[in-house]
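Handout, section 4.2: multi-component inputs.
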Amino acid sequence: MNAQPETGIGASVRRREDFRFLTGRGNYTDDINRPGQLHAWIVRSPHAHATIEAIDKAPALAVPGVVAVFTGADMVKAGVGSLPCGWLINSRDGSPMIEPPHIPLSPERVRHVGDQVAVVIAETREQARDGAEQLVVTYGELPAIISMTEAIKPGAPLIWDQAPQNSCYDWEFGDRAGVEAAFKGAHHVARLELVNNRLVPNAMEPRAAIGDFDRGTGEYTLYTTSQNPHVIRLLMGAYVLNIPESKLRVVAPDVGGGFGSKIFHYAEEAIVTWAAGKLHKPVKWTADRSESFMSDAHGRDHVTVVELALDKDGKFLALHEKTLANMGAYLSTFSTCIPTILHSTLLAGVYTTPVIYAEVRAVFTNTVPVDAYRGAGRPETTFLLERIVDIAADEMGIDPVELRRRNFIPKDAFPYQTPVALQYDSGDYFTTLEMATKAADYAGFEARRAEAARRGKYRGIGVSSYIEACGIAPSQVVGALGGRAGLYESAEVRVHPTGSVTVFTGTHSHGQGHETTFAQLVSDLLQVPMESVEIVHGDTNKVAFGMGTYGSRSLAVGGMAIMKAVEKVVNKGKKIAAHLLEASEADIEYKDGKFQVAGTDKAKAFGEIALTAYVPHNYPMETLEPGLDESAFYDPKNFTFPSGTHICEVEVDPDTGVTEIVNFVAADDFGRIINPMIVDGQVHGGIAQGIGQALLEGCIYDQQSGQLLTGSYMDYCMPRADDLVSFKVETHNVPAVDNALGVKGCGEAGAIGSPPAVINAIVDALSSLGVRHVEMPATPHRLWQIINEKRAAKAA
Amino acid sequence: MASTVTMTVNGKSVTGAVEARTLLVHFLRETLGLTGTHVGCDTSQCGACVVHVDGKSVKSCTILAVQCAGSEVTTIEGLATEDALHPMQEAFREHHGLQCGFCTPGMVMSAVDLAKTNPDPSEHEVREWLEGNLCRCTGYHNIVKSVVAGAKAMRG
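Output:
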């Protein structure tokens, strides 16, 4: 392989996407305008919990330009269905989770601030907004429940009458008896209560959707800011609007970041598509950022107790996790599997912990639905593990790096069966740990701490060794665990008569650079110049099927589907070549872009074979169809398991509580890498989001009124350039075993590994004050309070 | 109330009807179809909409179209020549200073203004200058590299 050294696998090829983005020629959903298009404004609930007593449309309809007003009652009357949840979780008693309905416009009751109540449609966006302001909605306010711990108390007001104690499910996993026995015999038990803070994903492009209806053909088109257009077509068509796939096209053009938040099928997509069908005109909606804050699915939001049992040498004996996971007011598309299947199955981490038991209770609250956000369940696992490991290290007087090393899964133990279902195929945790400690000069840290102390600063260093599971699979296992979808990927490799190639992938690129990476891959596999390979994605009328992009799956699953399709192309090419060269098919080998009779100089170039396939004058017609266009579906046999160690070094200013990150090192194992430049970029972005969670970001609701207090960039603190440093990023790549490409996935690792590294560093910095744990985000206010309380207690 | 506004955008004189409340960014995107300038927030925080007005970087969501009457406006579409990317655009491409591309036009326009006023900015100065431009993809690491390199290229 690698006939194309400048562009092949392993080359940092500059991205072909960049020209259009750098010159303002990107084509995002809000850049699209359809002839005769109308504009929608969504009327959203100002209350966290209320009945809808009455809606008077007349004043809104009287506003110039307003064409229509629709409400939940209109949708129910028209038979519009409920936004579905894609994963069934059963409670420990075997009963299925409570799955409340979710009509795109709420018909009778609103359950969070921002809940959709009505849509006003007008000739311009301003007119629609003016109309929305005139709509008279009479609400009957109900008590709101925001806190999960309040929500599960007996007698708490119910968000859904069918969900006693606001419980969606009460799930358990693992070996309860084994864990109890191990804790009884343990030398030491470390215990920590922690909160994994609620985050707002905040892709820079706000969500947008345009519904279009062709009355002549009866076909609907939805343009939407989605990570997976085929999934939206399936869910909206089959469950919500009753439109067959053959009459529904979903286009996800350039999408300005997703981070999980654009996986889900949202109400607005159904609203504009349905309204377009009613009005026979295109209907466009684009979110204001304020709307994004109160309608994009949020992330994380766990309240957890974790306990780790150790023997006298610091070997981990057992782990117990008990978590409350916030679902918000409705079940978003994949919400239910995030704190369970994607979370607790990773509780072994990179360690040999022999028995593990998890209890997860999912809770409804009057807040925006919570679903996957970069890492989705795995950052929550890594945070609780890497915090409890540090706490155990501190309590037992063992260096945190040494304690990790003592418990790492040995290099020769792969494939390694964890006690929580997953089987890791490969990894080398020792080497990435060594690389990170070396790059961070871990050994020389105490001198830097002392130097900082002389300047009046608290300096600390924090280590986090993570593993993640990417490319969720295989479909049969997913189905057995309650997943309501297959998790394969599809690809089509269409070779044109002149030898140029169009590759159709069911994955979707919204910043990851697939148009470059996949072209590199195909160029390398097919041994044709990269310029002759074009990548197509994001349109259900072009790509046959797909499951989209999330969970760092695109290369490990989508890339494998492409590889399979390429193999079929090569195999068919061999048949054609055998005929032309009058040789046996078994003797044809494909090398350097040529089909060659082994051991001879008789050969046909790739382009000649392509032309022959489409101009089949001399062709084995009785045994072979003309054309050179192959498709493949690939269903992985396992997840992939990237891993690594992140080390963060901080200085905390006791006068202001401000944390400065002075160094951040990541040493990762991503398996085989196609484009190192793009991989580094993914890691940088992930780390920034992880640091954001650790230091800056936190979504806050008023606990009484349920008002969203962090509803804009004025009060939700996004990481900015001057909050961060340049990162030191290295890789030590052990190829994955369970896929032929050897690739693992890199999109989420940064956000998974970094938050505990930052918090471990802050706790280490403040350890001389007796600080044992700091909740995220470790804002200056929080740290200033902690420092002053601890200092005062010491003085007293 | 609608009125008419005339300004020069990317070297061409343009005239269009606007309402008093029309923001420059909406005039550019909706009236002129220059969709390279993006709207990422509603509180003038994200900087996706940065353009140049009379040579200075301005958040085009924070200025009314009528305020720009008679002004010279440059958007991301006006930065490259027919034959070549602007050195700052080229630096972003070379150093992978963009991923999803949504914040990119504002980043580049902001960076060009920085390089004009501070031709040799340090990493620290770049980070401070870009405080008004949010990016969710890159962690700013490669943006900072790009801006330092782009400023150097602009110095020639």
